[in-house]
Write a structure and sequence with these properties.
Blueprint: E1 5-8, H1 20-28, E2 31-34, H2 37-47, E3 53-55, H3 61-73, E4 78-81, H4 93-102, E5 107-110, H5 115-123, E6 130-135, H6 140-150, E7 156-161, H7 166-177, E8 181-186, E9 194-199, H8 200-209, E10 216-220, H9 225-237, H10 241-249, H11 255-266, H12 270-278
Parallel strand pairs: 1-4, 1-5, 2-3, 2-4, 6-7
Antiparallel strand pairs: 7-10, 8-9, 8-10
Helix pairs in contact: 3-4, 6-7, 7-8, 10-11, 11-12
Main location: cytoplasm
Subcellular location: Cytoplasm
Function: Catalyzes the 2'-O-methylation of the ribose of cytidine 1402 (C1402) in 16S rRNA.
């Protein structure tokens, strides 16, 4: 009988946030796979748990992933933990989960703290719809490409960032997305937790005068649907209605379908587009 992979959430700063169930699974597991065994050892010592540990992180996931799969197939129960929070989010836990699915090995979650959700609910920004982007790419061109894709994103945007990259990230976001509202959150659940609602301009000014400390969760306001609509209308108004129609008809739309889409793009009626097209040009 195969074992089970348990994705065990651990505290993101306050040790009191460990759950009873997480403690039980860590006590019962045959093996604990950890992003940093030294860090996890401190948590286990605090809980009075003594279990074998194996490292599993971004740089050894190919090799150690196979080792863990073999142990699971042999019947071992394995608890996977990250340094803080829920494994599988912005870490190689997702790769191990996929391997388990490929080998028909059961996977279950032991839920608990998640930094991105904690930051979101404290932000004061919309929580109804949101998108999580993790860490932006280090490469300047790749980072610009990702931000361009988020330029018209109307959902709240959640990012992680390290202190040594925070200033450049704020500048990059402002350069592409404009001066949005942002919630700067750090040291979540800890004694010196900070939740700072401000604009990107204010954040850039703040961190040009002081050095960032700790890992940050950035909650960035999405673009309003009204602004997206207005920008698109301006974009279409820069070309003629005939050119606009031709763009859609080149995509094999019928004239009727193209008129309907052009009317929608320009915030007008299909009848108005039709009248324009049949009127003789002066």
């Amino acid at each position: 009988m195969t074992g089970i992979l348990y994705l065990v959430a651990t505290p993101i700063g306050n040790l009191e946030d460990i759950t009873y169930r997480a403690v039980r699974i860590l006590e019962e597991a045959d093996l604990i796979a950890a992003e940093d065994t030294r860090h996890t050892k401190k948590l286990l010592n605090h809980l009075g748990i003594n279990k074998p540990l194996i490292s599993y992180h971004e740089h050894n996931k190919m090799e150690k992933g196979q080792v863990l799969i073999e142990k699971l197939l042999a019947g071992d129960g394995i608890a996977l933990v990250t340094d803080a929070g829920t494994p599988g989010i912005s870490d190689p836990g997702e790769d191990l989960v996929k391997l388990c699915h490929d080998h028909n090995i059961p996977v279950t979650s032991i839920p608990g703290p998640v930094a991105l959700i904690t930051g979101l609910i404290l932000s004061g920004l919309s929580t109804r719809r949101f998108v999580f982007e993790g860490f932006l790419p280090h490469d300047k061109k790749e980072r610009k490409m990702v931000l361009e894709q988020l330029k018209d994103e109307h959902r709240t945007i959640i990012l992680y960032e390290a202190p040594h990259r925070l200033k450049q990230t704020l500048l990059s976001i402002k350069d592409t997305l404009g001066n949005r509202q942002v919630s700067m959150t750090r040291e979540l659940t800890k004694k010196f937790e900070e939740v700072l609602p401000m604009t990107l301009d204010e954040a850039i000014k703040k961190y040009s005068q002081e050095d960032p400390r700790g890992e940050y969760v950035l909650i960035v306001e999405g673009k309003s649907l009204e602004s997206i609509r207005d920008d698109r209308i301006k974009q279409w108004e820069s070309i003629t209605i005939e050119e606009h129609m031709n763009q859609y008809m080149k995509e094999n739309m019928s004239k009727k379908e193209a008129m309907k889409q052009v009317a929608k793009d320009r915030g007008t009626t299909k009848r108005a587009i039709y009248q324009y097209l049949i009127e003789p040009s002066e």
